[in-house]
Every structure is written in C-alpha cells, then in structure tokens.
C-alpha cells in the first residue's frame, strides 16, 4: 500500500495529481481531459477540492508540450476512485482511506504540530535577523532624525564635537578641527583663511561663515570670521564618522 499513488503534504493538507490517479486507474476514457471534465462536475468545487496547474510533459513522438493537471484533495480522490466502479478504483479508495487514518492518528497530529511549531520558531528567528538588518540599514536615517532634533541651527565646531560624542564618537574640539583640516573640509594653510571652510565644504553646504565686527580701543574696526556647521553638515559628519573606523579617523 505504501506509495501506491504519490501524495503531497503541504502544511495540514494532503493532495495528489489527478493525472497520477488517472494513470493508476488504467487511463479511463483514454484522454485525461475528457475523464476529469466528466467527473469534476459531481459537486466538486474549484480551488477547494481541485486546482488547475500547467505541467510540461513529453508526447509519444518525443516532442515536449504543456498540459493541464489538477491538484486534488484526498476526499475528491476517494470519490473519483469510487465512481470508477472497477477493481483498481476500489484499491485506490482503500489506499486513500488508510492514508487518512494514519494522517489523523494522534502520533501524526502531534508530529505535524511539532513541525509547525519548529517552522514558526524558524520564521520568528528569520524575522529577527531581517529586523536587525533593517535597523542597521536605517542607522543613517535614525542619525539624521536625531541630529535634526538636536539642532535646528548652525553650531560651532566645538559643539559638533559634543554632538559627535553624544552619538558614540569619542572626539574633542581640537582633534575635530585637525581632522577637518586634514580631510579637506577646512583650510589648513596658515593665514587669514586658516580654519575657514574649503570651497568643497561650502559647495556641499556643510558650513556657513559668521562675520562679526569688532571695534578696538583705538577706534579701528576688524572683522572676525567663525566657521559654523549647518544642520546638513551636522548630519553629514555624524553619519560619516559612524561609517568609519574611529581608530583610523582620529
């Protein structure tokens, strides 16, 4: 009785190929489509008792072609077997009855329950992995939101150093100034433009320059220039440092 006709197990559902059943029954009506179309009207419901799908098969002349098969339930298979009123039909029906008995035994039900529990645990673990991956992927977006929340205006480079420390980057004002100069964001040559934003940094919108008029005791006025980091610059540098190895950065 074992594997008399191949049965497929999907979750808590048993199905088989209508063509396989037709083959076992010695191909009644010669053509499969004529046989199945005759009996599928006997109260069977499409997508409940049977479902059509396309298979690739080989003709007797060796040519490949596509044909229609049907996935049918065990209950439908039992009725189709009984309707044949042949010895093969009786054997097939008895085979399906024995399969159902085994399928509904306490041991089989427990085994399916354990398998489903294992699948749910595996799915849960996969979801956790995907969630962790998503969190990692969204870090720059999170940092962007945190930076915008923390500051809605331009800040000094020293304040940027504090903001970086709040985001897990151990640096200070002097180290940050040095890094910005060495990496082309601030001018490093000595002179009146020392520590001012480079053209690259200005084009990226990372800095603004604040000019302050200073009146001296002798009456002359001088202009003090201070680089200030824009909101865009704050987000840019936080994300940049987060993506880099701090030991190599600082």
Automatic annotation (TrEMBL):
Pfam families, per the entry: ANT, AntA
Residue ranges constituting the AntA/AntB antirepressor domain according to the UniProt record: 17-86
One Gene Ontology MF term: DNA binding
Domain (Antirepressor protein C-terminal): residue spans on this chain: 132-243
Name under which the protein is recorded: Phage antirepressor KilAC domain-containing protein
Organism, scientific name: Anaerosalibacter massiliensis
Lineage: Bacteria, Bacillati, Bacillota, Tissierellia, Tissierellales
